[in-house]
Amino acid sequence: DSTLFKTGPWLENRLVLFDLAYFKYRRFALIDENDGYFVSRLKQNANPVITAELREWRGRAIPLEGKQLRDVLDDLDRKYIDVEVEVEFKRGPYNGTRSLDTKQFRVVGVRDEDADDYHLYMTNLAREEFFPADLAEIYRCRWEVELLFRELKTQYELDEFDTSDEHVVRILLYAALLSLLVSRDLLDLVTEQADDELVFPTERWA
Known about the structure:
Blueprint: E1 15-18, H1 25-33, E2 37-41, E3 49-53, H2 69-72, E4 80-90, E5 100-112, E6 117-123, H3 132-154, H4 166-193
Parallel strand pairs: 1-2
Antiparallel strand pairs: 2-6, 3-4, 4-5, 5-6
C-alpha cells in the first residue's frame, strides 16, 4: 500500500525505486527535500512541461523547451531523451488548506525500437553521474527485487505467518534468507560443473 510509505530524514543519501502505484509529485518532492533520490516510471497521464534540455543534439534537432513532454514524443526518433521538467502538485494540508507548488525534476527516455516508443523515467539523480541508459538499468533492478520477494513468499512460505510472535517471525525471516543464500551458492556450483547449454531454474535449491 503506497500510503504506508513515509518520507523523512531516513531518506538522506538513499535511492528509492518506485512502481507506478507510488507515483506522486508531492512524494518525489519530499524525497528530494530530505536529500534522498528516486527513480520512477512516468505515468501515462503525466505530461509535464519541459523547462530545459540536458543533452545537446547536432543537426536539425526539434527544440523541446517550453513544450509538454508527451505532445512531442511522436515527433522524436532520437535514442535518448534527457530533459528537465516542471511539475505542479499540492502540498500537505496546513491550517485547513493545501497550497499549490512546483518542482523541477529530470525525465529521461530510452527508445524501444521494437515498440517504436520510449521507456520514460522521472528522477532527481544528476545528469553528470547517471546517463539515461544507466537509469534504465537501475530501474530494471526493481524487477529483480520483485522476483526475489515473490520467491521468498512462494518458495519459502513467507506470504503468511501462523504466529504473531515477533521473535518467531524474525527467526522465520532469517531462516528463509539464509536458505536463499545457500540455494544460490548450490546453483552456482551446479552451473559451474554443468555443460554451458544447460539452463537451471533459479528458485530454491536448498
